[in-house]
């Protein structure tokens, strides 16, 4: 069995009894040396494919199982195939592919978000954990009106919101928005609005929506930062709504768009206006909802 570029594998001349046992009970194809492409590492690519589960196509992590004929699969898939190899239909038993697990221990791979800017080179078994929290992993579209499947970096999402969702774009760190609803007694979970603001070189999403909180209809406004939570803490914002000599004020840090829209809404982390108070702010005639929400965004002085 020839493995190009894999450190730590014993040579055939000095194999001990344990390694011979592994060779007999963990048979898998040798890795041929493909034609070299300037943009690829052929050995790493081949080994990475070898460590891909043929059933779910995800990377395999210990325990890695195999059938008597050497076909491998991950532990999750083993529990779903009724103890039969999905390739040759042999009974799987409880054979561990220890040699393949040893190969994985020797690998170091680039983060899959390298195209987004991550330069980390990671041990195989640390790669999955790193990628789940990688600073450069793409963001999900923050549009709240549908389950939009689009993801990408911030410049891409800003263009996507503007061009595909027709979201209003504004520059500046202050805002003054007026929300009008003809029938204030009708509150639907899908009633919402989104506006994007650009200030301090960053983008922010201002959400306003109506939904049922228990049996009571409420209105809520909150701000999300288009970036990571660690950067969101560098900023603060305030929201104010009022009328008839009364006002409500909210201050806080914007939430990152890493937290999805529903999670922020359900945490009540924003300006919440009960319907009776909203109608009072609107003039008290209970004929039409007219809310004017003002606010501003600022950067904390002690933050870089």
Structure write-up:
The chain is of the alpha+beta class. It has 3 domains: 12-106, Herpes Virus-1 (2-Layer Sandwich); 110-137, no CATH class; 142-299, Apoptosis, Tumor Necrosis Factor Receptor Associated Protein 2, Chain A (Sandwich). The protein has 9 helices and 17 strands. The longest helix has 10 residues, at 154-163. One of its GO terms (molecular function) is zinc ion binding. It comes from Cucumis melo var. makuwa (Oriental melon).
Which tags fit this structure?
304 residues; 31% strand; 22% helix; Apoptosis, Tumor Necrosis Factor Receptor Associated Protein 2, Chain A; Herpes Virus-1; four-stranded antiparallel beta sheet; elongated
Within CATH, the superfamily of the largest domain carries the name Apoptosis, Tumor Necrosis Factor Receptor Associated Protein 2, Chain A
Assess the beta-strand content as a share of residues: 25-35%
Name given to the CATH architecture of the largest domain = Sandwich
Query: Could you tell me the mean pLDDT?
Result: 80
Helix tally?
9
Distance from first to last alpha carbon? 54 Å
Q: According to CATH, what is the class of the largest domain?
A: Mainly Beta
Give the total of domains: 3
- Output the CATH topology of the largest domain: Apoptosis, Tumor Necrosis Factor Receptor Associated Protein 2, Chain A
Structural class: alpha+beta
Cα shape: elongated
Number of strands: 17
Biggest beta sheet attributes: 6 strands, mixed
Taking pLDDT < 50 over at least 5 consecutive residues as the criterion, the unreliable ranges are 1-40
Order of helices and strands: HHEEHEHEEHEEHEEEEEHEEEHEHE
Rounded to an integer in angstroms, the radius of gyration calculated over CA atoms is 28 Å
Estimated helix fraction = 10-25%
Protein name: RING-type E3 ubiquitin transferase
Pathway: Protein modification; protein ubiquitination
GO molecular function, one term: ubiquitin protein ligase activity
Family: Belongs to the SINA (Seven in absentia) family.
């Amino acid at each position: 069995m020839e493995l190009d570029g894999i450190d730590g594998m014993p040579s055939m001349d000095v194999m001990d009894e344990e390694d011979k046992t592994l060779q007999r009970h963990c048979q898998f194809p040798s890795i041929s040396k493909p034609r070299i492409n300037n943009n690829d590492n052929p050995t790493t690519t081949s080994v990475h494919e070898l460590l891909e589960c043929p059933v779910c196509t995800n990377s395999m992590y210990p325990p890695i199982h195999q059938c008597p004929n050497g076909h491998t699969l991950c532990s999750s898939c083993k529990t779903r195939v009724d103890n039969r190899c999905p390739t040759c239909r042999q009974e799987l038993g409880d054979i561990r592919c220890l040699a393949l697990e040893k190969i994985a221990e020797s690998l170091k791979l680039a983060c899959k978000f390298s195209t987004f800017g991550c330069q980390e080179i990671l041990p195989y078994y640390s790669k999955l954990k790193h990628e789940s929290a990688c600073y450069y992993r793409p963001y999900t579209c923050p549009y709240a009106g549908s389950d939009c499947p689009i993801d990408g970096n911030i410049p891409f999402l800003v263009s996507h919101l503007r061009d595909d969702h027709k979201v209003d774009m504004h520059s500046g760190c202050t805002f003054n928005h007026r929300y009008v609803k003809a029938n204030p007694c009708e509150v639907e979970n899908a009633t919402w609005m989104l506006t994007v603001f650009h200030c301090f070189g960053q983008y922010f999403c201002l959400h306003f929506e109506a939904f049922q909180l228990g049996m009571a209809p409420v209105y809520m406004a909150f701000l999300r930062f288009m970036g990571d939570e660690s950067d969101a803490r560098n900023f603060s914002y305030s929201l104010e709504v009022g009328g008839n000599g009364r006002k409500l004020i909210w201050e806080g840090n914007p939430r990152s768009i890493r937290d999805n829209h529903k999670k922020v809404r359900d945490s009540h982390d924003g300006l919440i206006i009960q319907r009776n108070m909203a109608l009072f702010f609107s003039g008290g005639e209970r004929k039409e909802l007219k809310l004017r929400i003002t606010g501003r965004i600022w950067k904390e002085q002690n933050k870089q």
